[in-house]
Design brief:
single chain; 207 residues; mainly alpha; Arc Repressor Mutant, subunit A; 12 helices; 0% strand; globular; aa_tRNA-synth_I_cd-bd_sf; ligase
């Protein structure tokens, strides 16, 4: 097998472990009959891990880091998260992403291909979002990344959303426990308390 889940995880607080199973062709494509989606998933995963992979054993960890979403972990472990949260535009970006999700404007990734590559769809969305909010550069990209991926660094956000969409119905049971779907992420953003998050960052600094 590709690996096993060695820690308990809940949808609200997923735990990314060093050895989480990702789909194998015999376990997914053959069983579901959706070989094309599986192939697209593997291509997307390959693209994502190319930047940071050093050993083949890194693949599971890198892929599952993109499928997971754990803001609490980031608040407690990333020294740069406070800078992103403190940006004046953060609440505006968060609200815009939530509103765009509910209006259908926020690109969600696709499992059916399409005439326009999802990377281009995502790029166009970010350009439009920047114009609407009068933001550009880090003031736009950093809050978007934190809101949608739960991290302040990592692969392209659009690539991660596409991987998340393609993983639907393909993941091994253990990996599915780690995975946090886009609708779940948006729900967490809707209940996100910025002031409490900033306090948590300060508490961690004081420890």
């Amino acid at each position: 097998p590709a690996g096993t889940l060695s820690a308990t995880a809940t949808p609200s607080e997923p735990v990314v472990t060093e050895n989480v199973a990702v789909p194998t062709e015999s376990a997914t494509a053959a069983d579901t009959g959706n070989a094309e989606q599986f192939n697209q998933f593997m291509q997307s995963a390959t693209k994502i891990v190319q930047r940071d992979i050093e050993l083949l054993t890194d693949i599971n960890r890198l892929v599952c880091s993109c499928l997971a979403f754990n803001l609490t972990h980031t608040l407690r472990t990333d020294s740069h998260v406070g800078e992103v949260l403190a940006e004046s535009a953060f609440p505006t970006v968060l609200k815009a992403l939530v509103d765009d999700y509910h209006s259908g404007t926020l690109p969600r990734g696709t499992t059916s291909g399409g005439e326009v590559p999802f990377a281009d769809v995502w790029k166009a969305y970010m350009k439009d979002l920047g114009k609407r909010l009068n933001l550009k550069g880090k003031a736009l990209f950093h809050p978007v990344r934190l809101c949608l991926t739960g991290r302040v660094s990592g692969p392209d956000v659009g690539d991660q959303l596409q991987l998340l969409a393609l993983s639907e119905g393909l993941l091994c049971e253990g990996t599915e426990k780690v995975c946090v779907r886009l609708d779940q992420r948006i729900a967490m953003l809707e209940s996100f308390d910025l002031q409490e998050a900033l306090k948590e960052v300060e508490r961690v600094k004081a420890e």
